[in-house]
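Worked problem 6 (solution included).
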Amino acid sequence: MTDVEVEILWPSALPSRPAEEGQDLLRAAGVDTTCMLLPTRRGAADVVLVLVTTGALEPFLRTLFRKFAEEAHAALKKFTQRLLKPAAEGQPAPRGLVFEMPTGGRVTFTPDLPEQAYKQAVDLDARDGRWAWDSRNTMWIPK
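Solution. The predicted structure is:
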């Protein structure tokens, strides 16, 4: 995989420390990463958007997160939880993290996902559609 670029679009209404830590984590793995603060709009968006330049989520996740850990899903979980945690006790945290590919695929991660969701996400072919975790069926489904 070559020339992976990531943009983290972080709501400016939230403390930026988790976004900076996520950016540092990706840069340490050799991924060209930019973190930008989104202005607060009406109804204050509290979802983080991660734009990925690769066409499919699976190769990106597999390549990127293998650099962080033996098991890609464990590193994916660590990365998403780092972005989804409050910067400090009592401070707000994002409600979700959305990975978006140029092909239109979007995968939404929330703070309460089980281990199985991360394991399945690494192999998810999310080229198109909007994917969300279905806890009742314990699988990713297109919305």
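Discussion: The CA atoms of residues 28 and 103 lie 26 Å apart.
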